[in-house]
Amino acid sequence: MIKIERALISVSDKTGVVEFAKFLSDNGVEILSTGGTFDAISKAGIPVKGVDDYTGFPEILGGRLKTLHPKIHGGLLGDRSNPSHVKEMDDNGIPPIQLVIVNLYPFVETVKKPDVKLEEAIEKIDIGGPTMLRSAAKNYKNTAVVLSPEEYPIIQKELEENKMQLSTDTTLRLSAKVFSYTAYYDTAISNWLNDYRGDTFPEYISFAYTKKQGLRYGENPHQKAAFYEPIFSKAEFTPLQGKELSFNNMLDLDAAFHVASLLPKNAVSIVKHLNPCGIAFGESVKESFELARTTDPISAFGGIIGVHGVVDKATAESITENFVEGVVAEGFDKGALEVFAKKPNIRLVPIAKFQESLEEMDLRPIHHGMLIQNRDYDLVQKEDLKVVSKLKPSEEDLEGLWFAWQCVKFIKSNAIVYTAQNYTLGIGAGQMSRVDSVELGASKAQKVGLSVVGSYVGSDAFFPFRDGIDAIAKVGAKAIIQPGGSIRDEEVIQAADEHGLIMVFTGMRHFRH
After folding, report:
1. Distance separating alpha carbons of residues 383 and 386, to the nearest angstrom
2. What's the sign of the alpha-carbon dihedral 39, 41, 44, 45?
């Protein structure tokens, strides 16, 4: 147990600090403090000593240097169970400090402001605070360290119950919290500076996330899971209603959001197990949803819906005709919320301004490291499409092919999608053979009574053989859009010409693993 007799308090967030300082003072604890914290405590009539008076050294460099002094860090780091430490502290007039209450300059809050200047950001990099936190956290057997106001009532209760003593179980917990936080704080600084410099792939990289919520379970019920949000997240993730989210729900919400966000306004995506089972855009969100659902209503049952727009009452009524797990949209109007309230298990997640909320980097952990890439947001321009078949597309055909190309990039490779001009008809996803994907997409459309005759076909990568083209022709599709680039391109183009198919090359592949 650690007997608390002296505390150093230096906080930027002064929530509850005066009340906690009064409790400490009333129980015989000597209080040291700095700057604005000193002013707040002293104005409340609580006895407090300034750090500069305590050390005999003034605060200098505009406040940059105030606590980096042997009398402070000796008091924090000294091991009172080590006789040589005790002697050196006595010889140098360094009393022990058993409690440190510190939180740091608001660097993250500062750099989140629009158009923040580098100089302003630099001045919000705390030096003395993290050093005190780390010193006290290292010496947890002799020093307790508190970095957030929510700890005050917890610590106060333990002190009251134990005659102003804290257990080492508590101080070790606080120590671990400190090192997690200082790593997070330093990571935020390094990430912001690298981003400011435009260095996407620096030599050393760290990631800072805060726990947003626990999840219902992981990929399977026997797995535990939690959701962590990046420190510089562009979007607030706060469900409006619904059952507790699972790991799989989160993955599908993310997929549905990304598909809808990169398509035109009013676009709707329905996702199941990370694959779209329907994509469409129409004159209204309701029209888009109903078109998307026609692609594969069986798979859409229990899916996650992404809406690039605001869900209105009519759309909500249509959505709730069948079971769905959740909806992520730019918003929900009052009428929609009233409809969804009758189905309280449906998760509703608003993310305002879909396209502005897109994150740039794609992180993939593997068993011995991390893969990082730019997300696949690029799309070849319409004017750069290359018609390679003898039969030329009309403007209407180009629109249909363009929609097919926009959709196929979201489907697991090998990917084939059959579309009308603005909605999907059949989706062949995740097959090891491209011709299998061709046949799967057509059969899924036929299974629900949709015809792919006259349809547009998108392929995420080139056709390695003509067999895929023969299979597409067999089901009556009209035109194909694909990257090209196979050593057998001439054979593939010849097959398209033999069958009277339009074929367009994009020159850009969209694998999705």
Report:
1. 8
2. negative
Query: Judging by DSSP bridges, how do beta strands 326-332 and 304-311 pair with one another?
Result: parallel
* Pair 455, 326: CB distance under 8 Å: no
Domain 382-505 has CATH 3.40.140.20: yes
**At the fourth CATH level, which superfamily is domain 2-197?**
Methylglyoxal synthase-like domain (3.40.50.1380)
State the pLDDT at residue 461.
96
d(CA 351, CA 78): 50
| Alpha carbon separation from 443 to 295, 417, 503 (Å, rounded) | 12, 12, 22
**Predicted local confidence at residue 108, as pLDDT:** 87
DSSP one-letter code for 509? -
Cβ-defined contacts of 115-121 (< 8 Å, 24+): 118/196, 121/192, 121/196
Which regions of the chain are under pLDDT 50? Answer: none
Reported as type and span, the H/E element at residue 401 is: helix 395-408
pLDDT in the model for residue 88: 86
User: Three-class SS string for 115-150?
Assistant: CCCHHHHHHCCCCHHHHHHHHHHHCCCCCEEECCHH
Question: Are residues 426 and 277 in contact, defined by beta-carbon separation less than 8 angstroms?
Answer: no
pLDDT value for 320: 96
> How far is 121 from 107, CA to CA, in rounded Å?
7
The one-letter amino acid at 329: A
**245-357 with 382-505: one CATH topology?**
yes
- Residues assigned a catalytic role: 138, 273
- Helix pair angle (467-474, 489-499), 10° resolution: 20
Q: Are 434 and 463 in contact (CB under 8 A)?
A: yes
So what's the pLDDT on residue 74? 87
Element at 350 (helix H, strand E): strand 347-350
CATH 3.30.200.20 fits 245-357, yes or no: no
Q: What is the 3-state secondary structure (H, E, C) of 211-262?
A: EEEECCCCCCCCCCCEEEEECCCCCCCCCCECCCCCHHHHHHHHHHHHHHHC
Strand partners, 307: 268, 329
